[in-house]
Design brief:
The structure is a homodimer.
Chain A (H helix, E strand, L loop, with lengths): L10 H8 L1 H9 L4 H9 L5 H7 L5 H13 L3 E6 L5 E6 L1 H19 L3
Antiparallel strand pairs in A: 1-2
Chain A binds a DNA duplex (20 and 20 nucleotides) through helix 5.
Protein name (chains A, B): Helix-turn-helix transcriptional regulator
GO molecular function, one term (chains A, B): DNA binding
Pfam family, one (chains A, B): HxlR
Amino acid sequence: MIKETSSNASNRKFLRSVCRITGALEILSGRWKALVLIHISEGKNRFSLLKQVLPPVSDQVLGRQLRELEAEGLITKAIIAEVPVRVDYSLTDKGAAVLPILDELAEWYDKRGD
Amino acid sequence: MIKETSSNASNRKFLRSVCRITGALEILSGRWKALVLIHISEGKNRFSLLKQVLPPVSDQVLGRQLRELEAEGLITKAIIAEVPVRVDYSLTDKGAAVLPILDELAEWYDKRGD
DNA sequence: CGGTATCCTTTATGATACTG
DNA sequence: CAGTATCATAAAGGATACCG
């Protein structure tokens, strides 16, 4: 086995081991993840709806970010076995809890220009 | 950079905030940037001090992240023409203002595991 | 409809050598 | 001491095709 170093270990796990802030930022660091959370909270809870309201993003990338958000426990998906299949995304309590903090970041960002 | 998705006027303020959130996360998205801000706030205000307290990071990468933080107006550098040269980094008001928000993110992160 | 598989491009990070 | 230049690698993002 090859010895693990910080450069070949899992980036995610490494960043999380560094500190909680780094870990939190890593979870939100996907390019569209914050937007996805906000849009889901606004009722855009379907794959195709998200594609409509997000800036142009490929199926592949949107799917990956949704998978990662689900893996992090920020969203859940409910698969309804209709034809065609229907999937409803919704925020978990954890996902909802981060939105007010994101709002604070937005306010901070507004003031940055002075 | 993030294009607003037009739906209706009542969403406008909300959508602007979406863009600001994305912008704020972008500023903080560098791998070591949040850590750098925190360590500077704790008095680790020299290049070599930062190297000591951060996880292993190359000169090149640390230098780049410091440059970017300065460009974003989160830190300033004071160059003192001694021999050898001395540089003091410090937080701007903007840089200091984001730290409490990062703390909230850390608390949120702590609770994520249930 | 709601994705995944595959392949490609761009960006971020990293190692090393060198400089004022 | 405090970096930058150069080159290399890793990770993220994206285009396209296809599947249940």
